[in-house]
Specification:
It contains 24 helices and 21 strands. By secondary structure, the chain is of the alpha+beta class. Strands 2-3-8-5-7-6 form a 6-stranded mixed barrel. Strands 13-14-19-16-18-17 form a 6-stranded mixed barrel. A 4-stranded antiparallel β-sheet has the order 12-20-11-21. Strand 2 (89-104) and strand 3 (107-116) form a beta hairpin.
Length: 826
């Protein structure tokens, strides 16, 4: 231990004489270690989720589904059954997200909450920040209405006032008592909500009685394996429980299947798989960049090693063993890499927050859905990864100098230097490994540049896709009003009519309409559609609720029939407008106007007939959820015939308005003046909504593009350093060549050929490897092939141009040598 400390002290003193080299090495390693650490944290958050609860390894998700759909969320009655009729999984809890209008001061604010079972907080072992948390007694019919606020909601919306505990809080026009504040670190599971309300009070905050309906699946269930019970034993017990429940309360969609899935292991899911694949690709890119950084640092340390060969020879002649010399060399690389790791953690923190800002970008219309979330945690396992990465980098970077010590003739280096040959014979012997390292750097930079270029092209293609409408002059305002704010006869429809009138009257507004779905919200309601005159399998299609003027506001063309108008009222015959894609699927080339369709919303019983609607118009195809998805079939219903408590105001600004964002203040004021209980969920421009929908693609393009540019920079620095070093060794040779008649241009071309030869080898290896590796990007690309010739050609041309400049500077310096001065250089 004492020897290690002594080696470290000697290393630090030697580095103090070369601060420039040390700074370059530490920064290079910090970028590589920091980036790989941040992406490991992101990958770990998705693939190996953490749960802040006692005995997290025994916590399981519980799903109550059927044989066709076993991973369904559960009904409240399912939750009660699992509590009462089985003992393999204990402490079963449930939660369900909901939106709520919170009366605060003179206005209403929208917030996301969780309906939770009474033992929710005790399951996670949470203690209150102030007041108390929910208890089992709060979650029963007839209990006093109470609510718990999250720490971020208390600090933000409630101003952090400690006296609010114990005071009333209006939720959807209903009075609740705020009994406590959750601790700041509490996240529970899923998206962190602003408020927690007992599950038994569902009808008071949602206005819907759903707890007694087994077909209404609204709850996410968690439980903890009973002591001594394994997961397989729990599955057997749950299968028995499912059979017993099928006898007493059969499901309409088939036999039950109750599934327990560990909460801390990766659970394959189509949506999750997309994020996991992207995280793995970015993690691979980070490791490639880290390997490239190690190659660059190894090149620098190898150059330093050739300078120190005389020192090693003297130490060896004085009795130092090769083992002792190897220890001192490794201590240098380890000190540099550990310093790079420490600095890299600061970069990892920044990058992790950057990744989180993309991943937690709320889909359109959901507002502050993820305000209290923390996805990418730099916890103990992440710090362990960073330490391991730094130690492995230390070994890899020190490997080439160590081999010099093991294989080199140290005493010969002393004699050669004594003879006057500057640099020693070993200097030329080091060129082979250094050339190899430069080739590796160029090859790796090609891989990173190609990956980044393909993902950037994907983003550009998605941004330029034909949406079916123009978002440039659009503002979307997602609104929410409690059902209790409307009358028994018309519901909340008059409130939204007032909103529409106020918005349409604003200066600068060309048209305004209401819609249920927000364009590019990454979600859409779906229904089953059949044609009564053509019995067959129902067709799954998205649907939207819209007011007259919706198609004009977005600029969606009506191809056949008509759009909705004032005639489509609550008491009018049910009408529907279909997209061209749906019309083709249902009627091929026939005219669909005047035809009837049967539409059934889930949940529904098999074979149950749905209400019938008359097709009054056909629209052009539009993108519904994402620019990356093809325009699929969609139905449009008039809001007047299918009202909802949450709608989105869509405004098209006049051409004279410089920017839609300039209308935000007046639009916000007009909306809030329409009704005291009306709250704004989200307010964004069409362009910003487009950016939100492509948040994942922008993150991938930004990170991969950054790695590509950094990799190119590191490779160029390595190539420039190698050629500069080579020129310094061959000064005398170049002097002789020019003395016997060589033209300076010949010397310049000689150095250029050497450098570009290394580039050519690295480029060929990189392009060859890319043909196979870029296939891993296939699921992330849009509108571009993995072997796109334009991308490959552009990357190759750009790399050749940049590396040519890196080669030209040392070559030009060699050509400017004075032959007489070069010959005197001994």
């Amino acid at each position: 231990m004492r020897q290690i400390a002594r080696d470290a002290a000697v290393t630090l003193r030697s580095f103090s004489r070369q601060p420039g080299m040390v700074l370059v090495v530490v920064l290079t390693l910090a970028l590589g270690i920091g980036a790989s650490t941040a992406l490991f944290a992101y990958l770990a958050a998705i693939s190996w989720p953490r749960i802040d609860a006692p005995a997290p390894e025994r916590v399981v998700w519980l799903y109550v589904g059927n044989l066709e759909d076993p991973r369904d969320i559960s009904s409240y009655l399912d939750y009660l059954d699992l509590q009462r009729q089985q003992t393999a999984v204990r402490d079963v809890i449930g939660f369900s997200p909901f939106g709520v209008s919170v009366g605060h001061g003179q206005t209403a604010a929208f917030a996301w909450g969780h309906l939770v079972s009474g033992s929710y907080f005790s399951f996670f072992g949470a203690r209150p920040e102030r007041g108390r948390l929910l208890q089992p007694g709060d979650d029963r019919p007839g209990a006093e209405p109470v609510v718990v606020a999250s720490h971020f909601f208390w600090k933000g919306t409630l101003g952090g006032d400690p006296s609010v505990v114990g005071r009333p809080l209006r939720l959807n026009r209903q009075t609740f008592t705020l009994v406590g504040i959750a601790p700041e670190s509490f996240r529970g599971y899923g998206h962190a909500p602003a408020l927690y309300v007992p599950m038994a009070l569902s009808d008071r905050v949602t206005g819907l009685t759903r707890l007694d309906k087994r077909e209404v699946h609204m709850m996410n269930l968690l439980g903890r394996l009973a002591p001594g019970v394994t997961l397989s034993q729990a599955q057997e017990a749950l299968a028995l429980t499912a059979r017993n429940l099928d006898e007493t309360a059969p499901l309409p969609l088939g036999k039950r299947r109750i599934v327990a899935v560990p909460a801390t292991t990766y659970d394959p899911d189509p949506m999750t798989d997309t994020y996991v694949n992207a995280a793995r690709v970015l993690m691979a890119a980070a490791l490639l960049f880290l390997l490239l950084a190690c190659a660059n640092v190894a090149n620098l340390l190898l150059a330093r090693a050739t300078v120190r060969e005389r020192e090693w020879g003297i130490r060896a002649s004085l009795g130092a063993s090769r083992r002792r010399l190897i220890g001192s060399v490794l201590s240098e690389s380890l000190v540099l890499c550990l310093a790079g790791g420490l600095l890299g953690m600061a970069f990892a923190v920044w990058m992790a927050r950057r990744i989180e800002s993309y991943v937690l970008t709320a889909p359109g219309g959901l507002g502050s859905w993820s305000e209290g979330d923390e996805l990418v945690r730099l916890d103990l396992r992440v710090f362990a990864f960073a330490l391991l990465a730094a130690l492995l980098c230390g070994v890899l970077c020190g490997l080439a100098p160590v081999l010099r010590v093991i294989r080199g003739n140290l005493l010969a280096a002393v004699k050669t230097d004594a003879a006057g040959n500057a640099g020693g014979a070993g200097s030329r012997g080091a060129l082979g490994p250094r050339k190899l390292l430069v080739i590796v750097q160029v090859g790796l930079s090609v891989l990173l540049l190609l990956g980044g270029s393909l993902l950037i092209r994907t983003l550009r293609n998605a941004e330029n896709v034909d949406l079916g409408f123009d978002p440039g002059r659009i503002l979307t305002v997602s609104l929410y009003v409690p059902r209790s704010a409307g009358s028994a006869e018309e519901g909340v429809a008059p409130i939204y009519r007032r909103v529409l009138e106020e918005a349409a009257a604003l200066p600068g507004v060309e048209t305004a309409s209401l819609s249920y779905n927000v364009p590019f919200a990454e979600w859409a309601n779906t229904a089953q559609v059949t044609v009564p005159e053509k019995p067959g399998e129902p067709l799954a299609t998205a649907y939207n609720l819209v007011t007259p003027g919706y198609f004009e506001t977005l600029g969606i063309p009506i191809l056949q029939g008509r759009a909705f108008g004032e005639r489509d009222r609550r008491d009018s015959p049910p009408a529907v407008v279909v997209s061209r894609a749906l019309a083709r699927k249902l009627w091929a080339n026939e005219n669909p106007v005047g035809r009837l369709v049967s539409v059934l919303d889930p949940p529904a019983r098999p074979g149950e007939p749905g209400p019938v609607f008359e097709v009054v118009g056909v629209t052009g195809d539009v993108q519904v959820t994402s620019a990356l998805e093809p325009a699929g079939p969609i139905l449009f219903f008039p809001v007047a015939q299918r009202s909802h408590s949450r709608l989105t105001l869509i405004v098209r600004t006049a051409a004279s308005v410089a920017s839609p964002a300039s209308l935000v203040p007046s639009l916000r004021q007009a909306v809030q003046a329409a009704h005291p209980d009306l709250s704004i969920v989200d307010l964004v421009t069409g362009r910003e909504q487009m950016r939100r929908s492509l948040a994942e693609q922008r993150m991938q393009a930004e990170i991969a593009g950054l790695f590509g540019l950094l990799g190119l920079g590191v490779s160029v620095v390595g190539l420039f350093g190698l050629l500069s070093y080579t020129v310094s060794l061959r000064v005398r040779e170049f002097g002789i060549r020019m003395a016997i008649g060589a033209h300076p241009k010949d010397v310049e071309l000689l150095v250029l050929r050497q450098g570009m030869g290394l580039v050519a080898v690295g480029l060929v290896l990189g392009l060859t490897g890319a043909l196979g590796l870029t296939r891993l990007l296939k699921s992330l690309l849009y509108g571009v092939a993995t072997n796109d010739p334009y991308t490959f050609g552009g990357v190759a041309a750009g790399l050749i141009l940049v590396t040519f400049l890196a080669c030209y500077l040392p070559a030009h310096r060699a050509a400017q040598l004075d032959p007489l001065k070069a010959l005197r250089n001994r």
